[in-house]
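Objective 1.3, modelling of assemblies. Example input:
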Amino acid sequence: MATDPISQPQPATFAASKIPSLLRVLADPEGKGEISAEGAASIEQIETNLARYRETSESAQHGNDDS
Amino acid sequence: MDLLAEVRRARRELPERHRALLDHANVQETVVYDWPDGVADLYRTLGERPPSASELKDAAAVWLQGHRTAAFNAPLLQAMAAEVDVPSARAVIQYVAWHEYGHALSLTLATDELRAEGPALLRLLPERFQELVAADSYARSQVFDEIVATVYTVMIDRIRTDGYGAPDFIPPQVYAAFQEVIPWPPIQ
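Predicted structure (tokens):
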């Protein structure tokens, strides 16, 4: 039996930090290490973009906090 | 890139039977451009508690139970797609959308009894799948829906290359639980 009742739904979020892992699993679901160079480069770019987005949004948040 | 059009394209690419279930459950989608304030307002209009500010900040999408709506984080998705070729950017948005539709199907169709099996099923999954589900971020009762959403994304993506067969890398118990929730193969 579940410890927390379904009748009290909790917010369900899909964290962006999971996206690179999702892309790796989709590119190589069997985990054989068979991701193409092109696919790996694309995933790396997306990771970079997410890190940049996180930095920018944190800076903006700090800016708002300071004002 | 028109994000809402891309999300809806992803929905159109789902098997007809699944689209019918989503339609029947009145599942909708929206793209929120003033994230996080806009999505927090959506929760408040329903009288629902929004996720924490830190959860919202890192969320690519959220599920609004009261609206039966998947809300997608436009600033994040746009930033994520920068300097990525259009087919790859489209594919990522498609995967996020499929995950949310799988989540919506599970929330609509799974029983509490199945949800109670979530943590045990999680332990059966290969490690990379366990990491992907990131169960630590969820309540025990949410783990099952996250497993279904994750497996659903993989299964939909595999249709193009492998059809509807059971993959070797999904343990039989997890696949059976998935099939209890999601009509699979969807042509049955």
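Residues 110-182 of chain B form one domain.
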